[in-house]
């Protein structure tokens, strides 16, 4: 399923700025429904951002020939995310079989402050 057709992305208001050559960028604007108790972006939204931006980077590395499903995420939340958040994802490596991909992501706010950093493992799968 294409990114633009994923209902969850629409629900959160996440938009993709680009996804090509092993790099991707997503943006989400804050709104009350996405905030936590300290009026910052909820950690679950940030986790979704890093998950999807890394998967987007992974599939862009192989020209979208397959999809990528998450095997593992390790996310460090470094500061509260307020306002518009941008997530940059990057393909890092693939295993010898060409199935398991390592990626990393960086989330930052409008002032350029780091909100989160993440690394993840993904498995390439054929489209259904």
Please tell me about this protein's structure.
The protein is an alpha+beta fold and 128 residues long. It has 2 helices and 6 strands; from the N terminus they run αββαββββ. It has helices spanning 7-12, 43-61; strands at residues 15-20, 23-28, 67-77, 85-94, 100-108, 114-125. Strands 1-2-4-5-6-3 form a 6-stranded antiparallel sheet. The longest helix has 19 residues, at 43-61.
CATH class reads: Alpha Beta
**Uncertain runs with pLDDT below 50, 5 residues or more?**
none
Number of domains: 1
| N-end to C-end Cα span | 9 Å
Based on CA atoms alone, the radius of gyration comes out at 14 Å
The CATH superfamily is identified as Hotdog Thioesterase
Q: Count of helices?
A: 2
Report the sheet-strand fraction: 35-45%
Mean pLDDT: 94
Helix content: 10-25%
Provide key terms for this protein:
128 residues, alpha+beta, Thiol Ester Dehydrase, Chain A, six-stranded antiparallel β-sheet, 6 strands, 42% strand, globular
Any chance you could write out the topology, listing elements then pairs?
Elements: H1 7-12, E1 15-20, E2 23-28, H2 43-61, E3 67-77, E4 85-94, E5 100-108, E6 114-125
Antiparallel strand pairs: 1-2, 2-4, 3-6, 4-5, 5-6
